[in-house]
Design goal:
mainly beta, four-stranded antiparallel beta sheet, globular
């Protein structure tokens, strides 16, 4: 983000032509930190240009996993829901990267990312 514009935009995109292939997200530690957590990550994106991108996340304290989306050319907003059974959020504050959108082919145009805490068997006591 531009440091003098501290407000939200409707959408963000990668800029592969200028070597900007990633959009990084820090999850507020008051919401989720450490892990493992059972979460749904909902990514609303624009389906365009046959682009390909992936959601990268911590699947253990030391491992990164990813899930891939292949876009079409409808130009419509779509939402992909990723259920992560054991997600970790190891970074502290907003300066760390807990989740990341990575452009694989073309640019990823992301409208919104939501992280929803899910109740699993280990959470019910």
């Amino acid at each position: 983000y531009h440091k003098s514009h501290l407000y939200d935009m409707t959408a963000r995109r990668t800029d592969v032509a200028n070597e900007q292939r990633r959009i990084r997200f820090g999850v507020d530690d008051n919401f989720l930190s450490g892990g493992p957590h059972r979460v749904a990550v909902k990514v609303t994106y624009f389906d365009r240009d046959n682009a390909e991108w992936e959601l990268a996340f911590h699947s253990s304290p030391t491992a990164i996993s990813s899930r891939r989306i292949v876009c079409g050319e409808t130009g419509r907003a779509k939402t992909a829901t990723f259920i992560l059974s054991e997600a970790y959020f190891p970074q502290k504050g907003y300066t760390g990267c807990d989740l990341e959108i990575r452009a694989v082919r073309g640019d990823a145009v992301i409208r919104m990312v939501r992280v929803i805490r899910l109740v699993g068997a280990q959470d019910v006591r």
